[in-house]
Amino acid sequence: MIDVTARYFAAFRDKAGRSSETVKTSASTAGALFAEIAAVHGFADTEATCKVAINDEFASWDSPLANGDTVLFFPPVAGG
Amino acid sequence: MSFRISATPLDPEQLKAPLSAAAAGACVCFEGWVRNHNEGESVKALEYEAHEVLAAKEGQTILEEAAARFSLHSAAAEHRTGLLEIGDCAVWVGVTSSHRGEAFEACRYIIDELKARLPIWKKEHYVDGQSGWINCVTGSAEEADGKSASTSIS
């Protein structure tokens, strides 16, 4: 198990009722962590339309996680 | 080439001024405005949220891509954050080139990529008091208003 900080933005933050939290997880990738978190907080958007960043750099869903990482979950974007 | 996230109103004339160049024969600017309707709903305001560090970095990358693809003299863009009212300018893009063709294409490329890639989110506030995050299934207008999860995973 590792400890990571999960950060939520926009719709995810509203739905989770918090902007970040510490998560103890056995997930080895960003995508696996997203699946765990989405189930807990009821996020309805999927990997296909969302983005993830690790330690303030965009990452792919199969990126590995390390203890102490900060993982940012971005719901579907809507700039412009 | 400069991209910026701005929490204060965008002034298109002021943004365009630095693009001026003696070799430029074309200047194309795009302004994205807040409109009063979306998908059948009457909209009274929009709220933009950004991850500023990543949005600024990605915006800069997009301008550099445009400079590499098209023959430009300059390119710049800004995107707003915060609460905007109907008619406010939410995003501005400006490019200059020797000829109009490249300028039109580059401007189109930049705004399309900004919309698709910047970590920016838009919450619509409707005339009927509801609100909803655009493009999201999570937190769409249908389920808006305080149904936040009460579970914890810490």
In whole angstroms, the N-to-C terminal distance of chain B is 43 Å
What's the level 1 CATH class of chain B? Alpha Beta
Fourth CATH level, the homologous superfamily of chain B: Molybdopterin biosynthesis MoaE subunit
**Number of helical stretches of at least 4 residues of chain B:** 3
The main pleated sheet of chain B reads as: 5 strands, antiparallel
Side-by-side strand order of the widest sheet of chain A: 2-1-5-3-4
Q: How would you sum up the major sheet of chain A?
A: 5 strands, mixed
Structure description:
The complex is a heterodimer of chains A (80) and B (154). With 80 residues, chain A is an alpha+beta fold. Chain A has one domain (2-74): Roll (Ubiquitin-like (UB roll)), CATH 3.10.20.30. Chain A has 2 helices and 5 strands, in the order E-H-E-H-E-E-E. Chain A has helices spanning 10-16, 30-41; strands at residues 2-8, 20-25, 51-54, 57-59, 70-74. In chain A, strands 2-1-5-3-4 form a 5-stranded mixed sheet. In chain A, a hairpin with a 2-residue loop joins strand 3 (51-54) and strand 4 (57-59). The model of chain A has no long low-confidence stretch (mean pLDDT 97). With 154 residues, chain B is an alpha+beta fold. Chain B has one domain (2-6, 23-142): Alpha-Beta Complex (Aldehyde Oxidoreductase, domain 3). Chain B has helices spanning 12-16, 52-69, 100-117, and strands at 2-6, 26-33, 37-38, 41-50, 74-80, 82-85, 89-97, 120-126, 131-133. In chain B, strand 3 and strand 4 (41-50) form a beta hairpin. In chain B, 33% of the residues are buried.
List the SSEs and their pairings.
The complex is a heterodimer of chains A (80) and B (154).
Chain A: E1 2-8, H1 10-16, E2 20-25, H2 30-41, E3 51-54, E4 57-59, E5 70-74
Parallel strand pairs in A: 1-5
Antiparallel strand pairs in A: 1-2, 3-4, 3-5
Chain B: E1 2-6, H1 12-16, E2 26-33, E3 37-38, E4 41-50, H2 52-69, E5 74-80, E6 82-85, E7 89-97, H3 100-117, E8 120-126, E9 131-133
Parallel strand pairs in B: 1-5
Antiparallel strand pairs in B: 2-7, 3-4, 4-6, 4-8, 5-7, 8-9
Helix pairs in contact in B: 2-3
